[in-house]
Amino acid sequence: MSGAALGIEIVFVFFLALFLLHRYGDFKKQHRLVIVATLLAWYLCFLIVFILPLDVSTTIYNRCKLAVNSSPAESNGSDGTLAPSKQKCFKPWSYIPDGIMPIFWRVVYWTSQFLTWILLPFMQSYARSGGFSITGKIKTALIENAIYYGTYLLIFGAFLIYVAVNPNFNLQWNQLQTIGIAAANTWGLFLLVLLLGYGLVEIPRSHWNGAKRGYLLMKTYFKAAKLMTEKADAEENLEDIMEEVRKVSESIKYNHPLRKCVDTILKKCPTEYQERMGRNMDDYEDFDERQNNYPSEKSLVKLHKQVIYSVQRHRRTQVQWQILLEQAFYLEDVAKNETSATRRFVHTFHSQEPENKIIQYFYTPTVEWYWECLLRPWFYRVLAVVLATFSVIVVWSECTFFSTEPVLSLFAVFIQLAEKTYNYIYIEMACFLTIFFLSICVYSTVFRIRVFNYYYLASHHQTDAYSLLFSGMLFCRLTPPLCLNFLGLTHMDATISHRKTQPTAYTSIMGSMKVLSFIADGFYIYYPMLVVILCIATYFSLGTRCLNLLGFQQFMGDSEMTSDLIDEGKELIRREKRKRQRQEEGENRRREWKERYGNRDDSTRNRVVHTDQKESSFSEANTNRPLSKYTRSNGRTERDRIELLQDAEPLDFNAESISDDPLESDAGR
């Protein structure tokens, strides 16, 4: 089994990252480089979280071997503990051979740092650029990132000059590398505590509120009102952009040098707008014959960027509106079925997507009723209590993990108890659950937050390239300090535990933080205590109240604005529900009419067609017989009628009688 667990987790984490990226991204429409870069960033971050428990168990086994080799017989160690015997020191099932983990961590860490600080910021500017060529997009990305890269180079250059001039500093390459890692981890830890303080409270509270049907329905109405406003704004913005595109398309004709750029813009427009512009476009006119003020290439690049953004936003709001309608209809069905005497779940509307037959067989209406109306609320309450317990343990451990005598961090207590018995399965499970819960609190906040319309992770393939790349940057910057914080909570970091033991392979890659003692002994230890203040602020919804005061509507039960938006959303849902009911009734009537009269209509239609064929054949036979006799005279009569119509004078409406019409008189003659 040596190394098998590592290989299994590498494959599993890859498919996990691919599944999440498929849920949020769009493999068909987005650029392949964006998909690959985001997948690599997510994959490396998830991989660190899943592999770190194996590193902990392997380190505990290596410590056991060192203790056995140093003291073969059982005796008291330097720290007052008993040295382990050879019988207790057995190899774990997930043991990773020496030399593999340091290379693995070095490759994973430096690849993620290259992604987050160099490649992904460049690709963000490249993806948002409206250039019409690869060279133009690269040029735009370099210009936008010049200040970004220049700031880091200026700080790093000033630091090198200070070190070179000051004779008291004698820094080597390894120490400079450690300082760079410490700077990156400090920035990540600053953001990590903010996101962790929000997630530790909001995740248990969201599951507790998930058991309240009335709360979920009211919040859905609130979201519907806000989304309708955003949807109308997106449609209006798209109309304005399409009007500009139409004007540009009409001014730049087919033989203009910039016509290729206009065609590229038109391809990004929705299909209905493309057809409308194609009908109104006249390309038979040369651009040199009309003295117009033609737009420049720079203005077309800006217009191209606006088209990409507006089309993406319009498509996203349309999809989210349909998803929100389904959620609202389902919650209303749950509220109606709670008082059902038959205990069978009845849907108002049938699902538009075909359901799996296996799920239909097991998830019957009776099972659905018991789950939705009875079991699910209690399940969410129990889960919320478990998550709240984990949150309390995390907050306590964050405030006390620096204490080594006595050990106050509960996670460190659990790991040390398991280390005495060398129960590696328990150690790996405890480490995995701890770091997994921390990751859920941090990563879920990354998926939930929304920075206006610039950063927003929307499910059902509606996330734009800029937001995907930005999420990859955040994950790569948050994961290393998250892992260091986890090792500090469990006292597996020698800097925290102050024990002269073998460090984990991950800690050895990070280097010794003694080079920067004010960071190792100050910021890394005392800054995580701020999570208590952030948890209190999140519990009392101080951030939500501040945003509401600033004019950003947030869901608050004691606000008049919230009540008005709930009433507005309820009316919108009721209107959409009536609309869908009318559509389904019309479809049912057409289906019943077709089932009842479809065969009769087909037989009648066949009989009518057969009779028409007989009559047409009979008339053709009668008209073909005297055709040769009257062919010349009929042709002459037709020519005379055409000549008379051409020579006719205009109609005189002042004539006294109808016989004064020259057309009729000529026709009579």
From TrEMBL:
<feature type="transmembrane region" description="Helical">
    <location>
        <begin position="146"/>
        <end position="165"/>
    </location>
</feature>
<dbReference type="GO" id="GO:0016020">
    <property type="term" value="C:membrane"/>
</dbReference>
<protein>
    <submittedName>
        <fullName>LMBD2 protein</fullName>
    </submittedName>
</protein>
<dbReference type="InterPro" id="IPR051584">
    <property type="entry name" value="GPCR-associated_LMBR1"/>
</dbReference>
<feature type="transmembrane region" description="Helical">
    <location>
        <begin position="103"/>
        <end position="126"/>
    </location>
</feature>
<keyword id="KW-0472">Membrane</keyword>
<feature type="transmembrane region" description="Helical">
    <location>
        <begin position="523"/>
        <end position="542"/>
    </location>
</feature>
<feature type="compositionally biased region" description="Acidic residues">
    <location>
        <begin position="658"/>
        <end position="669"/>
    </location>
</feature>
<feature type="transmembrane region" description="Helical">
    <location>
        <begin position="425"/>
        <end position="446"/>
    </location>
</feature>
<keyword id="KW-1133">Transmembrane helix</keyword>
<feature type="compositionally biased region" description="Basic and acidic residues">
    <location>
        <begin position="582"/>
        <end position="617"/>
    </location>
</feature>
<feature type="coiled-coil region">
    <location>
        <begin position="224"/>
        <end position="251"/>
    </location>
</feature>
<comment type="similarity">
    <text>Belongs to the LIMR family.</text>
</comment>
<feature type="transmembrane region" description="Helical">
    <location>
        <begin position="177"/>
        <end position="201"/>
    </location>
</feature>
<feature type="region of interest" description="Disordered">
    <location>
        <begin position="576"/>
        <end position="669"/>
    </location>
</feature>
<keyword id="KW-0175">Coiled coil</keyword>
<feature type="transmembrane region" description="Helical">
    <location>
        <begin position="466"/>
        <end position="489"/>
    </location>
</feature>
<dbReference type="Pfam" id="PF04791">
    <property type="entry name" value="LMBR1"/>
</dbReference>
<dbReference type="InterPro" id="IPR006876">
    <property type="entry name" value="LMBR1-like_membr_prot"/>
</dbReference>
<feature type="transmembrane region" description="Helical">
    <location>
        <begin position="33"/>
        <end position="52"/>
    </location>
</feature>
<keyword id="KW-0812">Transmembrane</keyword>
<feature type="transmembrane region" description="Helical">
    <location>
        <begin position="6"/>
        <end position="21"/>
    </location>
</feature>
<feature type="compositionally biased region" description="Basic and acidic residues">
    <location>
        <begin position="635"/>
        <end position="644"/>
    </location>
</feature>
<dbReference type="GO" id="GO:0071875">
    <property type="term" value="P:adrenergic receptor signaling pathway"/>
</dbReference>
<feature type="transmembrane region" description="Helical">
    <location>
        <begin position="378"/>
        <end position="396"/>
    </location>
</feature>
<feature type="compositionally biased region" description="Polar residues">
    <location>
        <begin position="618"/>
        <end position="634"/>
    </location>
</feature>
